[in-house]
Every structure is written in C-alpha cells, then in structure tokens.
Amino acid sequence: MNTVTHEQMRILHRLSPPAFLLSYVVAIIVAVAYEPVLPSGFIVPWLVSMTLITLARSLSVLLYHRKPSILDTPIKWALLYCVGTLVAGINWAIFGAQFDAQWPSVYQVALFTIMTGLIAGAVGSHSSFFPALACFYSPILLTLIYVSSVQTDRAYLLLLPLVIIFWIMVHSGGRRFSKMLRTNIFFQQTLANNNERLELLARMDTLTQLQNRSALELYLNENWAHFYRNKKWVSIAMLDVDFFKAYNDHYGHIEGDRCLTRIAEVLRAMVPEDFGFVGRYGGEEFIVVLPGCSLDAAQTLMAQVQAQLRNEDIEHARSGASSRVTVSVGIHSAVPESESDWVAAIDRADAKLYIAKQRGRAQVVA
Fold first, then answer.
1. CATH classification of 213-365, choosing from 3.30.360.10, 3.60.140.10, 3.40.50.300, 3.30.70.270?
2. Are 61 and 21 in contact (CB under 8 A)?
3. What is the pTM of this model?
4. Catalytic site positions
5. Would you give the end-to-end CA distance of the chain in angstroms?
6. Domain spans in the chain, listed from the N-terminal domain onward
7. Mind listing the pLDDT tens digit for each residue in 263-301?
8. 3-state class (DSSP) for residue 345
9. For residues 280 and 265, what is the distance between their CA atoms, to the nearest angstrom?
10. What span, in angstroms and rounded, lies between the C-alpha atoms of 186 and 208?
11. What is the mean pLDDT of residues 231-255?
C-alpha cells in the first residue's frame, strides 16, 4: 500500500502551504487580540515558536517537492508530517491552556471558536492522511476539555459534552474521508495499472511474446525524429522464415507456431531490449530495428542469428534451402533523411529481403 500512502502524501503536501499560511495569519491575529489579557512574556515566545514551527513545516514541504527520489519511502514523509502537525497542535494547545474564566466573555468565546475553527480548517487540508489530522486536533481538544473541567464555576462543565461531541464528529468525519480517499486512490491506481497492461498487450504478439506491428509504428514514430536530428545510423533487418508454408503443411500449424516461438526466442536472446526493437512483422516475418548500428555490424549480428538458429536444429523436411529451418534476411542501413521516412526505410529492407529470397534463401542481403 506504499503507493497509496505516496499519493496521500502528494495530496497532503500540495494542500499544506495555504493551510500553513492561514494558521500563521490566525496566530498573528490572536497574539495581537489577546495582548490585553495575556502577558507579553507569554505571547512573544509563543508567536516566535509558531513562526519557527511554520518555517520548519514549510521547509519540509519544499524538500518533499525538491527531492523526488526520496518519495520511494512515503512512510518516512508521513511520520515527518505527523511530527509537524503534532508540534503545531501542541503549540496551539499551549495557547488554549491560558484560558481564564476571569477574562471578558468575548475572549472566552473567541478562544473556543478559534480552536474549533482551526480544527475544522485542518479537516479540509489534513484529512487525506488521517493520522496527521489526529495529531493536530488531539492536543487542542484535550486542552479544551481540561480547561473546561478545572474552572471553579461548574457551569463550564457544560462545555465538556460539546467538545466531546465535536471531537467525535471530527474524528469520524476525518477518518471516513481518509478511508474513502485511500479506497479511491487504490482503485484509480489499479485502473491505471490495468490500462497499462492492456496497452502492453495491445502492442504484443500473443504467440511469440514479441512486440507487434502496432508497437513498431509507435516505436518509430517516437524515435525516428530523434535519429534524424542526431544524424544517427539506423539499421533495419527484415527476416522471413524460408518455406514456412511448406513447414506448416507438413508438420501442422501447432508445430508451425512452436517454430515461430523458437525463432522469436533466438531473436530476443541475440538482440537485447535496450539494444533495439525486435518484433513480429506479420505471419512468418520478423523485424529488427538497430539504432546506432552500422551496416557491417548489422550484417554480423544477423549472421549470428542465422548461426544460432542452425544450432536450434529445427527439422524442415520440405525446405528448398536446407534440411533445417532457416531465415532469409534483408538489411537496410542509413542515416534518416527526414523525421518521418521510416516507412521508406522498411520498404528498402523488405526489398533486400526479396533479393535474398530470389538468390536462394538462407542468406543475408544488405
């Protein structure tokens, strides 16, 4: 579930800056407004501590956005954020603990309103990760319960059920929202993963597990312009299984499929995925695209493919080229002449393949 937690952290850190700013503005207003009833020896240090806490939390958010490599450990960010909200909540709780029944009623009402208002605001900005919300409101509400219960005037006890009810509402609402968000994130990620798998399947030949023609077109559309701009040599090899129809007629289509699969395995082993593109072009034809590969290097590689295929020793009693399965190969190598002439390049490789078949098959023509 780390991916879900990571997304929760992303949402939390995106919503944090406005919440930090609003909380700090409220702290300044409160410090100024309560100056008549609180000593400056308390207000000034409290406001300084709120300033330091806000700066530290803002720095944490900045580091989160500047260090994407660290996002692989979202739990650490979650713990760090919870520590920040807990410290901020404790700081507000310290202010709430200064409550005094001797204050004018406007200050008393304002204090409870401010504290509950801060919590209500935190529900909107912190509910994406419920532990962070709980770390903020718990010390504040505990303090409100405490100051209500220790007053000499028992009328203040009437505030206790109100604070407790408010706590239950915030707790249940925040927890429910967080759970719904986690479920939504999980389903969105599952859907995205399934869509990615479907896209991969759509670009894969189900028989050979090589990439298909659609994948080839996508690959060349995405990369050919880069090859052109960088004046990069590109070699394209077209491979055709010699007398494959005769193979199918003699051994059957199931054996024909196994033959194609074994050829695909040879190509996959000889041409690593990070070296170039390997795919099934259609029927018994395969295609290999080799960026940065000269004509000589491509010829050498295709000769090695033919040699490896001979080592596979696949019997072909009806072949006019050999007693074993062979392939004909046509290679075209050039620096692209435009950003989109890859179709012409494939046609030239196909023309070389045609020549190889005319010359007797089981050979490479470049």
1. 3.30.70.270
2. no
3. 0.59
4. 284
5. 53
6. 2-197, 213-365
7. 999 999 998 878 889 999 999 999 999 999 999 999 999
8. helix
9. 12
10. 33
11. 95
